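A reminder before we start the practical. When you read a complex entry, don't treat the lines as separate problems. The point of joint prediction is that each chain is placed relative to the others, so the output describes one connected object in space. Small molecules and nucleic acid strands, if listed, are placed in the same frame. In the example below there are two entries. Take a minute to note the order of the lines before looking further.
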Amino acid sequence: MIMADFPSRVSATSRIDIKPTNRSFSFGEYPIKSYRSISGAVVKRAFGNRAFNYSLQLEFANVSDAIVSVIFDHYHGQGGPLNGFRIPSTLLSGMDSDLAGRIRRPEGILWFYEAAPEVQSIPPDLNTISFSLIGELAYQ
Amino acid sequence: MALKIVQYFELTAFTTVRAARSLANIDQADSIVQKGDTGAVVHRYQNFFINQQIKRAGKRFDFAPFKMEGTSSVLGGDNSLVQILFPNVEVALRLVEQGNGNRLSRLELTTAWLNENNQPSGKEIKERFLGLGASFSETTIELRFRSAMDSVSGKFPARALSRNLVGILPLNSDLRLQ
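Here is the predicted structure of the whole assembly.
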């Protein structure tokens, strides 16, 4: 599996962090199925001991072409939604470090692109790029 | 009410026909899994504890995302048929190929109930099956099994049939006593 972490900067020598301007996330879900009888009584069965399907929606407004290029390369380097990766703290900048740690590294979770990032491009050199990441339990 | 159930999969795959010859004259009243057979490879997996290895009764069970489908019993005494679905990954391919297309394999499947702390509750069911074959798709591998002998349950008194009592036992439900 190819695993290149999501880039935190435009380049190794750059001082420009790649930070979202808007984000939302969900806590993941558990592998549970429910049976509800006609009486209304419910029985729930768990099929695993860990949560999956975390989500993180990110938007980067008014960013340069260089940042779009870096995300473009990362998306294709991961084979689109094929390969999982870790995310850097810059994607959660401004957040309490305890909470950021929980979101960055849920147990056994790797992040995947849900779909191709979408870009609104306004010349010259202004873009808004948005995409969703899914936190999945990768079978190792 | 909440249920937590783990299934332990222990497959003995016979790598050669010679090693599997005991399929024809095995004493099915005992155990269909014969430990120590030459040319046999044992695979052990569990499907609840994600990416963890579980030690149980001195055996180690790695995680594999499989699921079981099919019947567990029928009144008519036919052999029960079950399918076990694996993702089409290298581990599952090895299971199939080492058992000659899952035709020379035997499965011991244990279903165990867990308590709220994911510890064994003590309740479990152990079933034994014989390999029938396998089929493939782009994403899954289906291993097919049937019960070793079930026809005795419907029409016979509660006695054990063993090779000592009735000779070589058949492997399907076409049992005729004359």
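Discuss with your neighbour: Chain A touches chain B through 14 residues (CB under 8 Å). What might explain this?
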